[in-house]
Amino acid sequence: MDEISLEVSKRRDRGRVADYIPALARVDPSQFGLAVFTTDGQLFSSGDAHVAFSIQSISKVFSLTMALGSIGDSLWRRVGREPSGNSFNSIVLLEHEKGIPRNPFINPGALVVTDVLLSSLAPRETIGEILQFMRVLSGSEQILVDPGVASAEKATGFRNIAHANFLKSCGNLLSPPEHVLGVYFHQCAIAMDCTQLARAGGFLAAAGRNPTTGLSVVSAEKARCINSLMMTCGHYDGSGDFAFRVGLPSKSGVGGGILAVVPGVASVVAWSPGLNTQGNSALGIAALEMLARRMNWSVF
Length: 300
Prior knowledge:
The protein is globular, with a radius of gyration of 17 Å. The protein has 14 helices and 8 strands. The chain has a 5-stranded antiparallel beta sheet, with helices on both faces. The chain has a 3-stranded antiparallel beta sheet with strand order 3-5-4. A hairpin with a 4-residue loop joins strand 6 (250-252) and strand 7. With 300 residues, it is of the alpha+beta class.
């Protein structure tokens, strides 16, 4: 891991930080962190692995886990399981498919998942439930929502507002759109470091069990389903290329983080804020490709 950190630190092509959210635009693009949490409870880290960053769309993995725990497979009546082939915030497919998002990792799909979590709770309580879930999984009470990022999400999230209203018009959003958006903006603004996020994702590598506590988070079958969606849909229109290069289930976020899963072995988080044209961490992908090859971790 230290060798990889050194190698990627020498790369000039670091991508560009997300500039449509001011708080993300100010993040130092020179930073890089890497963490590995094994299914037997060992934690390894390198670089800036203890610097907190905005997890953004990686939060969709955990909200999906909660929704599946709440309503099970009935979720799939409202959201699909197919790769979109489009950018994460595209509205084209949503209109073509009459308000049924292609998968839970594109933004409209994540809004439907958030709506499920809101079905029995008020918005503030739902945010609290998501935050507590992340704290339990990571074993850290220090995890918080960054209020500046949440406010910036609300101030700039016009396309998400359009998604929510379109979903509501199609009958696929049961709560008021403003409530769904408020929770969604806050879950994306959760700040974690690589080590915390690797611990939180450990259950996906351990057949649904938290490697630290041994307690079941989801069934092994549901963990397999989440991993399969991460493999096919976790990088939006860059998912196929990531599978080709790295070969691991993973989920990216525009904060520069990538959560990857080596089934039966470990959860891995790479973070560097510079993004490629698909909105995925440029150095993060490069580092995960190196790690997967050197450890022979590809699932293929």
